[in-house]
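Agenda item 2: magnesium ion complex prediction
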Amino acid sequence: MKDQAEGLRKLVAKKERASRIIAVTSGKGGVGKTNIAVNLALALCQMNQRVALLDVDLGLANADIVLGITPTANLGHVIRGEKTLREVIVEGPLGLKILSGGSGVADLANLNGWRLEVFIKSLEQLNREFDFVILDTGAGIHRNVLSFVLAASEVLVVTTPEPTAITDAYGLLKVIHGQNPQAKVRLVVNMAKSPNEAEAVADKLNSVLLEYVKWEVEYIGYILQESQIAKAVSDQQPVLLAFPSAMSSRSLKRIAGVLAGEKVQIAPLGIKGFFSKVYDFLSV
Ligand SMILES: Nc1ncnc2c1ncn2[C@@H]1O[C@H](COP(=O)(O)OP(=O)(O)OP(=O)(O)O)[C@@H](O)[C@H]1O
Ligand SMILES: [Mg+2]
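Presented output:
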């Protein structure tokens, strides 16, 4: 296992253009991660960024449902050597590329030898093709979820104003910062009743983080509770396309604008570097 990890690191160390990998995650489930991941990915496409959406929610992979798309193959097929990466990438609206993780993502840990090498090499091409890879993850601090979150150099943690969601967000933020202090971590408050309520949530979280973790998360913005989102979801349409002038669509565009406009301090690891980290986490 050790030799293999070494060989992998060499493959990954080759200098090249790297995509920014942003994991969208949360402590508590059902707070709006999938909606945010899909719509942020689309908002970035509208800003002429080349974006891939990678759904690694091992439980209920549902980014495809929000987009009304049914991928027939997933990353599991690539990992098992049954399909190439190209064959499993589906084109969504605005040129967004969708890659479904499916339950096969956990198989990553079982990859070895030439198959692992082929997989990592195929990711090389993707680095050149995408500016951003947005990851829609599951909730919580289970190892399968955390492997993806901790491997990403940028993380968006989503919470709602609900006390249990805030408590779970705190627990998750503490783990992320503890285990990957270099990560650029940002907070989105979803389903707020007002901008003030959202800001109060961010302040509350940060005062506890400051006291116990000596660190603050960067508050990047809020999305209000809005009926258009539920309507769009039931129509299997992303809100950004179904209701472009809804408040939530404007908030999502604003957050995407901050992400796209920011100079990233940390050198992005790229898709290859990301997967090799996921592999390291999953195979210990
Ligand atoms: N700002 C909002 N206003 C109103 N409803 C919302 C908002 N954001 C999300 N929702 C609703 O909340 C539900 C859950 O959203 P979503 O599936 O994106 O959450 P999730 O965090 O991905 O859930 P899971 O943890 O199960 O993956 C959806 O049915 C959606 O309609
Ligand atoms: Mg989800």
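Discussion summary: DSSP finds 13 helices and eight strands in the chain.
Owner for follow-up: CH.
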